[in-house]
Design goal:
The complex is a heterodimer of chains A (539) and B (112).
Chain A: H1 5-8, H2 12-23, H3 32-46, E1 51-58, E2 63-70, H4 74-77, E3 81-83, H5 87-95, E4 99-101, H6 112-116, E5 121-129, E6 132-141, H7 149-185, E7 196-203, E8 211-219, E9 225-235, H8 236-257, H9 261-275, E10 281-288, E11 294-300, E12 306-308, E13 315-316, E14 321-322, E15 336-339, E16 345-349, H10 361-371, H11 377-388, E17 398-405, E18 414-419, H12 425-438, H13 443-463, E19 471-479, E20 482-489, H14 503-511, E21 514-520, E22 523-531
Parallel strand pairs in A: 11-14
Antiparallel strand pairs in A: 1-2, 1-6, 2-3, 4-5, 5-6, 7-17, 8-9, 9-10, 10-11, 11-15, 12-13, 12-16, 16-17, 18-19, 19-20, 20-22, 21-22
Helix pairs in contact in A: 2-7, 3-7, 7-8, 8-9, 10-11, 12-13, 13-14
Chain B: E1 4-11, E2 14-23, H1 28-38, E3 45-56, H2 58-74, E4 77-81, H3 87-95, E5 102-104, H4 107-111
Parallel strand pairs in B: 2-3, 3-4, 4-5
Antiparallel strand pairs in B: 1-2
Helix pairs in contact in B: 1-2
The chains are: A alpha+beta (539), B alpha/beta (112).
Chain lengths: 539, 112
């Protein structure tokens, strides 16, 4: 066979058939992997070549990785990697131009597989989508030959098809991975804090490509509640991964620094600059006091929360904005403390909610303020999303965290149902204490009622349920001048075990006026009555 | 989660253990471990100061009773310190601990 066979032998009809062979619409139904193999086989056949291979560019390392091959499958099996710019494929990639080598013996070919195979001639073309290089497609012949212009054109046509298919697969894979990652990095559920109502909305914007928005809410051992919404600048897997690290770091620093949002943000800022250079994030961090009466807020390049109290329209909290995290030289960050009245609604959100191309920011901010009213947290979230997102798919992530301070009017009973585990006891006490404060009970009476509740609920935790667990229901009701506490479970009582047990019952008797236990097969109900004086009118 | 801080100072054979925070079922065992670890065999007297305790219930009393019986066996003197009017003192009183263990207010406050 003449070395020039492919170029000279074929007429126009043959060429047309060749083009049809590689642009066949039936190929579209194949998976990307099958499509690559099929195209490589067809191009090998048409160009009368012995080998054909696709190498894709791995961006983080700047190397070409063998991804599909016919005739030299070992390239793929060995995970052959070729640096950009060196060797044959590297030269095609670096120049983004076709390269033909008539005889490899006098050329720069680094790939040992090509040499071992005894390949003599090579033709390679870049895989391009627009200006973006995805990799290289090359064919080889075991006999020396000269690839002509028509061969280059045909190979480039195949390369374009491979590039499009690969591009679609790459972005699909990354997108899925980023979505899974993002979902795993956001809280599965937010804590139920008695006395607070919480609702969230989270939309991954931008055609399903994830961004770096996050939200979080958690309680601290001190009884403080931490709320945060943030946004890592950038999109895709990287932004999602940084977001996950930031969210964990906020929790860790909140545990270490307790009640100072500026100190937490300052540490996050230093952490970013040290360990994630080049990354930038904005965040709002709000810490709610255990009494829920005051909110401490610090902003790092982030829009201010909206608060509705029912008295007049909602307002943006007047909080000075400090620089974003990870960029500026260290600054002294500021904290603004605001009173949070019973019933008040607070919305933390990411800028994806208020920024929309072509719409002035002020108009969007105005619309958000109107959407936030004193209603249940879920209703507020729903209204905000209807008003600000509507049927317009967000181009950026949207995170919205709404918290409502539930404070029942003093005569309304407090009802709690929490897991009967030791770690719930503290939350139960905190909620009961808040309720007793709202009815203006005297401190010494509060003390006794809390102790009685503590003993009754501890009993449920210890004795009501087996390993499967269950709920403890607590109800506090004001029947002036008494507070009536009901503690109920749905378990089957078993007698106390171990030493020094049973003292709790004695304590309840000692600190209350009336104490009854109703033990049934489907649960136990303890009713405690205690006269409670008012703090304002000391007797 | 309930948290308490146990602070120990040793002066010769006298061990002063100050408990701060909250003690309930969730952390009583951990608090007891810390208290017991602070008392060496060389101790002659132990003082447990509940002045900074915000909340304590029978889970905490259980550990004090168990401590009292151990100290009696080891012939180490034990006293519990709690300010008059504090919730901890009220609990200690209603639980009957003072019939086994000396209960006194903090020295500086008692003077004032």
């Amino acid at each position: 066979m003449s070395p020039h066979a492919a170029d000279t032998r074929k007429g126009a009809a043959d060429r047309l058939r060749d083009i049809e062979a590689v642009t066949d619409a039936g190929l579209a139904r194949l998976s990307v992997d099958d499509l690559l193999v099929e195209l490589l086989d067809r191009v090998r056949d048409i160009l009368n070549a012995d080998t054909a291979a696709v190498l894709l560019l791995d961006r983080p390392t700047g190397q070409l990785v063998a991804t599909a091959a016919r005739g030299i499958e070992e390239e793929v099996y060995q995970g052959m990697r070729i640096p950009l710019g060196s060797g044959f494929a590297g030269r095609v990639a670096a120049g983004q131009q076709p390269v033909a080598i008539d005889d490899v013996q006098d050329a720069d070919v680094v790939n040992p597989v090509l040499r071992q195979k005894g390949i003599r001639s090579l033709l390679g073309v870049p895989l391009l989508v627009g200006d973006r290089l995805l990799g290289v497609l090359h064919v080889g012949a075991l006999v020396p030959r000269r690839f002509g212009e028509a061969d280059v054109d045909l190979l480039q046509m195949v390369a374009d098809r491979v590039a499009l298919a690969t591009q679609a697969r790459l972005s699909e894979t990354e997108r899925r991975a980023a979505q899974v990652l993002q979902r795993s990095l956001l809280p599965e559920s937010l804590p139920q804090v008695p006395g607070l109502e919480v609702a969230i909305r989270y939309i991954a914007g931008g055609e399903g490509d994830v961004g770096g928005d996050w939200y979080d809410m958690f309680t601290l051992p001190s009884g403080w509640v931490c709320m945060t919404v943030g946004d890592v600048v950038g999109r895709g897997l990287r932004a999602a991964a940084v977001m996950g690290r930031l969210r964990s770091a906020v929790r860790a620093y909140a545990l270490a620094t307790r009640s100072d949002p500026a100190a937490i943000l300052d540490r996050i800022d230093r952490m970013l600059r040290q360990f994630e250079p080049g990354e930038m994030a904005t965040a709002v961090l709000a810490l709610l006091e255990p009494s829920f009466g005051r909110l401490h807020v610090s902003l790092a390049g982030h829009p201010a929360p909206v608060v509705a109290t029912g008295a007049g329209p909602a307002t943006y909290l007047d909080v000075p904005v400090d620089p974003p995290l990870g960029v500026a030289p260290p600054v002294s960050r500021r904290v603004t403390t605001v009173d949070l009245l019973p019933g008040a609604v607070v919305c933390l959100y990411s800028d994806g909610l208020v920024e929309r191309r072509g719409v002035p920011l002020d108009a969007r901010l105005g619309r958000l303020r109107e959407a936030v009213t004193v209603r249940s947290a879920e209703e507020v979230c729903t209204t905000v999303m209807v008003q600000l997102v509507g049927d317009d798919r967000p181009t950026d992530d949207v995170a919205l965290l709404t918290v409502r301070r539930l404070d029942p009017p003093s005569a309304e009973p407090l009802e709690l149902a929490v897991p009967a585990v030791a770690s719930s006891l503290r939350d139960i006490r905190a909620a009961a204490k808040r309720w007793l404060t709202t009815i203006d009970a005297r401190p010494e009476d509060v003390m006794d009622v809390l102790l009685a509740i503590g003993e009754a609920t501890s009993n449920v935790v210890e004795h009501a349920y087996g390993p499967k667990g269950g709920l403890v229901h607590v109800r506090l009701e004001l029947q002036r001048p008494d507070v009536v506490v009901t503690v109920r479970d749905n378990g089957r009582w078993r007698s106390p075990r171990g030493d020094n047990r049973g003292r709790g019952t004695h304590i309840i008797h000692a600190v209350t006026d009336e104490f009854t236990t109703d033990r049934r097969s489907n649960g136990t109900e303890v009713v405690i009555r205690r006269r409670v004086g008012q703090a304002g009118s000391r007797s | 989660m309930t948290t308490a801080v146990v602070d120990v100072t040793v002066d010769d054979g006298n061990v002063r253990i100050a408990v701060a925070g909250e003690v309930d079922l969730a952390n009583a065992a951990a608090v007891e471990d810390q208290i017991v670890a602070a008392i060496t065999n060389q101790a002659t007297s132990v003082s447990v100061d509940l002045g900074e305790v915000d909340y304590m219930d029978s889970a905490g009393m259980r550990l004090l009773f168990s401590l009292a019986s151990r100290m009696a066996g080891l012939q180490i003197a034990l006293e519990v310190v709690a300010p008059v009017g504090s919730s901890a003192r009220r609990l200690v009183e209603v639980s009957g601990l003072p019939s086994f263990v000396a209960l006194r207010p903090p020295l500086d406050r008692a003077a004032g």
